[in-house]
UniProtKB/TrEMBL annotation:
<dbReference type="Pfam" id="PF00583">
    <property type="entry name" value="Acetyltransf_1"/>
</dbReference>
<dbReference type="InterPro" id="IPR051016">
    <property type="entry name" value="Diverse_Substrate_AcTransf"/>
</dbReference>
<keyword id="KW-0012">Acyltransferase</keyword>
<dbReference type="InterPro" id="IPR016181">
    <property type="entry name" value="Acyl_CoA_acyltransferase"/>
</dbReference>
<comment type="similarity">
    <text>Belongs to the acetyltransferase family.</text>
</comment>
<dbReference type="InterPro" id="IPR000182">
    <property type="entry name" value="GNAT_dom"/>
</dbReference>
<keyword id="KW-0808">Transferase</keyword>
<feature type="domain" description="N-acetyltransferase">
    <location>
        <begin position="1"/>
        <end position="156"/>
    </location>
</feature>
<dbReference type="GO" id="GO:0008080">
    <property type="term" value="F:N-acetyltransferase activity"/>
</dbReference>
<protein>
    <submittedName>
        <fullName>GNAT family N-acetyltransferase</fullName>
    </submittedName>
</protein>
Amino acid sequence: MEVRKANKMDMPQVLDLIKELAVFENEPDAVEISVEVLESNGFGKNPLFTCFVAEIENVVVGAALIYYRFSTWKGRTLHLEDLIVKEEHRGKGIGEALYTEVMKFAYNHGLKRVAWDVLDWNTGAIRFYERSGANIMKEWRVVHMDEKGLKAFIEK
């Protein structure tokens, strides 16, 4: 297995992983993004994200997608949007290798924090994060306003 920074040609396989994650999270129809959107937003003059992939025999079997955020308390931080490993490759250290690459990236760039979300029923991931030293913030709630909500809010 090799973990490396993704390139534009990896995006079709990364999109397949994103779709697999949506099925795992019981949201199989929620993915609206396309390969073209990933390519145009992840590569070029001002990329919006960085992606690392885990590859076995030229097949992408895992990915970690990250982007910068700004904290009023800490300054520049990193957000781990998704950490995905194909189901048939879970339990082989691939997720840990991707996670380690993300943490090294943050450390090497002098960032003050890495933040991400985890579903409360994903106990395997929660145990892994806790073992790594991450702080699961149980008192915080994730808040989203989707496109339908935005429209309703603005038009009222």
